[in-house]
Amino acid sequence: MSTSTFKKVAVIGAGTMGAGIAGQVANAGIEVWLLDLASEGERVNALAERGMERLQDPDAPGLMSDAAAENIHLGNIRDDFDQLADCDWIAEAVVERLDIKQDLYRRINDVCRDDAIITSNTSTIPISLLTQGMPQSFCERFAITHFFNPVRFMRLLELVRGEQTRDDVMEQLDAFCDQQLGKGVVHCADTPGFLGNRVGVYAIQCALHTAFEMGLSPAEADALFGRPMGIPKTGVFGLYDLIGIDLMSDVVKSLVNILPAEDDFHTVAAEIPLMTTMIANGQTGNKNGQGFFRDVPTDNPDITNREVLDLSNNEYQPYTRLELPLALQAEAQGVQVLLDDDSRYGEYAWQVLSRTLCYAASLIPEVGDNIVPIDDAMKLGYNWVQGPFELLDQIGTERFVSRLESEGRPVPALLQQTRGDQFYRVTGNQLCARRADGSYPPIQRAEGVLRFSELRRTLEPQKSNAVASWFIVDDAAIVEFHSKANALDGDSMAILEDALQQAAARGLRGVIVHNDAQHFSCGVNLGAVQSFYQAEDYEGLDHFLNHFQQVVLAMRNSPVPVVAAPSGLSIGGGFEVVLHADQVICHANSVTGLVESLVGVVPGGGGVKETLYRNLTKFGDIEKASWKAFMNLGYGRTGTSPIISQKLAMLREQDQWLMNRDRLLNHALNALDQVEKAPAREPVALAGEPLYTQMCDWLHQAREDGLLYPHDVVVGTEIAGILTGGQCAAGTVHTEQDLFDAERRAFLRLVKTPETRARIDSMLGSGSSIRN
Question: How much is the pTM?
Fold first, then answer.
């Protein structure tokens, strides 16, 4: 990782955003002071301490490790303001009041170094007002750094300069936030709401108001305004609950106050009486336990009943996740499926999408002459799969504009000019994007940034099917999984197998397994497993598992180096692919683990085998290695950062991680020539029946103590049998293939049980695993 230009940072304001910024600076290995107002009594730093507690929330950890926490110093602006004297960067994240911010800036200016950079996290106050009355020397090194919440996980950083901000200040902030904090930096003009919230909140409000106007229930609206539109599955009502209905109301009001009267945002900003009542009643979302949805406890502490609000009477009723065939079809085939539908669901999708896309187009050239920052802002800040202009290309500009005209609706000038053309086009081997003047210059990214989602548009696949493809880039094979959640099946593994074979046959530099999706792979396609056992086709299932095993083994045995470059979730079968790579170069927010036990099976693609070998390498003792593997696999433990994954022996010391996921592919390509092939696995002398008996006894005792459910014991017994050899003599030697075979036998025995089938059926049906 590169050396930071900032050695010491201060963040003033320990609320959600300020604490998050401090946490990410600490994750980058940099000393940071988190300051807030002084409190009365003994806990003078109570506000800063509360910010630290937020960062250490196990349900939403803002810190990557305990070591990161040690980089944070807590204080207050009364007693610790002198700490700003030697800071390189001072980030203000206090309440959105101009007078308070300006008073703080005057104090900062009196204390800080002449070359210290000062920024604000605001998104509602123009930079010209923030710096009003400040000396030129301050204005020259002042900018806005607008982060998105949660800071650790949201990739967007909107960077805004003032009229007097120096170029070198912007360059330093850009490089630091990109390389050290891992952000996708989008340069924004100093316009109201910048880009992300300007378009994102408009889309949310449009989806909300349209649902009320058309009489759609929260379940119906969320089934459409989600993955079928390439938007996170939270949906609009679920998102309101997640953010907080009262907080979202404040965000809307702030945009109403700063946007010009003629802006179309005002048409979707009116208060909804039901929601005003909900806020008054404390129905403000997840933080209060009830909003549009709520979970009601039952007699079983492990089970809650989900309820949803009836918008007609403000009363809750039982909720069942809605599986609309139209939505499922759109998720698989694209958003055009929604727009072609003549039902009220299709009309809802059209109204929301058409208004949102028109709004985005209307912002050019007000916010700039370049469409790419708007698309980037929505993908990085709101997790859209495609930005507004990419969606317009998918729909077709001629078709889109014609429908607007047929309805007598106004067409933004940019859309009229691009009618019948595309916003993005490939020229030569470069991806180009349309500007307001009609030109198509190549998209420029920072040195070292390489997004495969953009690169692949300039490439032809060497081989492809519905779930995976492979390409040649810089004399290397790039394998991309692209199914829903990148779940793996036989076709996925066939593409990986072909890439490995062809890379060796053609003398390519190596193979890189990578994609730009939110998650690298959420595991083996459980639907395929379900199909096998429903058809009682155990021979077919065994064949699939064996093929999976042989393909990942081919990764290790390939004569060319194989690199896995994952981000997001790499769990289950997805992590088994990662485990067999010669080198792993992953994102700082990668989550790894073998979670198969939670759905009643064992890892069947070499996961048990690799977990045993990794722990044996780490501890050098077969019994200790077996126990560690037994616990990790039995509980389905995950490493929520590469640092934690290394401690769990999921990643090796030589495996690497980067803060910015957009740099993974370029780094992997550059590293290929230095990758050493992993040695073949030697046979291992297993601990045998004595340890197997101990593990079985532990399982039954844990069941008696109420720590495990009955089927957990059955699954745990199978894991113990693979790791120890079961009822064999201590020291019995098993080869890698013996361990593969044991995994498959255990997997097949488990899927024949009604308890495992119930767990898989529940996961596929409701999205949650049952305990039985």
Answer: 0.93
